[in-house]
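Reopening this ticket.

The earlier resolution said the output was attached, but the attachment link was broken on my side. Pasting everything inline this time so it's all in one place.
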Amino acid sequence: IDFASIHYNTVSGYEGTKCLIKGNCVTGTYGTTGIVYFYSGSGVTIEDNVIDVNLSNDYTGALKISLPLGEAIDIINNSIRLKTLGTHSGDIYIHTQYNYIANGNIMGNQLYGGDSHGIMIDDYYGRDYMSIFNIYNNVINGNKGSGIYNTENQPVVIWNNIITNNEGFGIYNVSSNSYNNVWNNTLGNYEDTSAGIGSISLDPLFADSGNGDFHLKSTGGRWNGSTWVTDNVTSPCIDAGDSADDYSKEPEPNGGRINMGVYGNTVESSKSNFVSIPPIPNESKEIKIFPNPYVKGKSLNEIIIFSNLPKEATIRIYSLSGELIKTIKHKDVADGGSKEWDISGVASGIYVYYIKSPEGNKKGKISVIK
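Inline output:
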């Protein structure tokens, strides 16, 4: 550690700092400053720490990052719960000052049960200098404030997060968001923004959120800390992350797609259950499915359309547990026809479609939000 020091139970960084803070467990009652407080440092990684603390001031956080930082800052795989007297605070509290930050990443963190926001991004001095902060594959659950609170619409990008059961908003004032599960937040799931592509709003079915276990329940298999177990339900967050993201670390069967939440693309990622869905020998990419996601109130009818179908095709729709929900037969004199799936009696959730035809096959997911 260069130019970092311990002051009143706080790690403080100043200009020139290159620092790795990893594998610490911090509990108890402290003063007014964040447990980890960096001011004008650079090249910082905060990883694999457990922080469960009480602070006695506002405008603070368990991790307090006061920009500018000349290089990347990565906040990775931490478990944080902050008790504080202040309301203008967060488990992770970031405020911009005079310059910018490059390539900031907040990923794989559990931010839960705190007295303020999960992540607060605050333009403290009225500056607008900040490059993109990537916030992905986090769980933000059960805080008294909002999940992500962005005071001045700083240019952050959020995806693959599970943001649930917070007493404030789920996401406040974030323009770029996609593939998140934002559910059951008291003041509303979105404020000064709206759900992005691929986002859902469903019970994530955590293993035991009350005790900080945010593994996702699955009929295909869930890691319980010592062995794999099976549940009688499957989380809608399994195989629901951004399809462009890496999923190679997830154990088989993994559905060929990353999970939302802290265990996405890790060896502890809950398994998929597609036992009854056949493999795809060759794939046709021309078939279109819309609206996807289906959001009740945004479409005139409760239907999902499969368009640009080949002359002959069979569409099968499955639940995430592998149960066959619907079979649709299509036959026409020429290519380019369409079929409708009536979802008026279909519950909210993630569904898998499999289209088989002599000209090629296609499978994917459909989100239904009611």
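Reporter confirms the inline version is readable. Residues 263 and 269 are 5 Å apart (CA to CA). Residues 1-10, 12-16, 275-283 have pLDDT under 50 and may be disordered.
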